[in-house]
Design brief:
The structure is a single chain. It is built from five helices and nine strands. It starts with a helix and ends in a 38-residue tail after the last strand. By secondary structure, it is an alpha+beta fold. The model has no long low-confidence stretch (mean pLDDT 84). 17% of the residues lie in helices and 21% in strands. Among the domains are: 72 residues; 37 residues, no CATH class; 61 residues, no CATH class. The radius of gyration is 38 Å and the shape is elongated. Pfam families: DUF3027. It comes from Aeromicrobium phragmitis.
Length: 243
């Protein structure tokens, strides 16, 4: 029966694909009782390592019938990389004017304003207005969303481990240019208000720092403020080169 399925599969391929596209016979796979797949090498340009797979139904006392003919990649075939969803390929800074990126319906970073609010105290603006008829923000950062943002900011260029922070004379938490935040992250972050600093207008960790700290003072030279009286040497003789 294997010879019959081989010949039937080859004849079906010859009738279905371009001439010269079918190469050597590669073998047979018994997929299930009454179902086999005959494999043939593909010789099409650009399809090195691919093969033709011909699926046949084989029943007792009956001629094999063709189910399908497909071109499949083998172990050495060059194939496209695994598909990555568009949303997962977007990186910070990729969005341009007019682009939109709506959050997922079950985005764990967001919670209803009436449930969380920007803080946990009574009278918080978001939570207060969310109880009214649609006033205020409908969604706010959840606890997970806040911690995710905090971890990202701490590990970024304006966290305590940034190279500029390690060489800084002071920390942002004691800097006069720091603008305080409100809410749950106020004990860890603020906004830099120093126009001469690299982080101006950006959220910085209180443990971040730079050379533009408000407490920075210029170093005074330890050298003498006045020059000593000149000394007139009338004993030694200077060697002068003759030209």
């Amino acid at each position: 029966m294997s010879t019959v399925t081989n010949e039937t599969a080859r004849a079906a391929l010859d009738a279905s694909v371009d001439e010269g596209a079918v190469g050597d016979y590669l073998g047979r796979d018994d997929e299930a009782p009454g179902l086999v797949t005959e494999r043939f090498a593909c010789t099409l340009p650009g399809y090195v390592g691919w093969y033709w797979a011909v699926s046949l139904s084989v029943l007792p006392d009956a001629e094999p019938t063709i189910n399908d003919i497909v071109l499949l990649p083998g172990e050495t075939a060059i194939v496209a990389p695994e598909w990555t969803p568009y949303r997962e390929r977007i990186q910070p800074g990729d969005l341009g004017p007019g682009d939109v990126l709506p959050p997922e319906e079950d985005d764990i970073r967001l919670a209803p304003a009436w449930f969380a609010g920007d803080g946990g105290d009574e009278g918080v603006v978001d939570r207060h207005f969310a109880r009214e008829v649609g006033l205020g923000r409908e969604w706010v950062l959840s606890l997970e969303g806040r911690e995710e943002a905090a971890d990202r900011w701490y590990a970024g260029d304006h966290g305590p481990d940034a190279p500029i922070a390690k060489q800084a004379p002071g920390r942002c938490g004691s800097c006069g240019f720091l603008i305080s935040l409100a809410g749950d992250l106020s004990d860890r972050f603020g906004v830099c208000g120093n126009g001469m600093a690299n982080a101006d207008g950006k959220v910085v960790a209180l443990t971040h720092g730079c050379g533009a700290h408000s407490g920075t003072r210029p170093k005074r030279s330890n050298s003498a403020r006045t020059l000593p009286e000149p000394v007139l040497d009338t004993v030694s003789v200077d060697d002068v080169e003759e030209f």
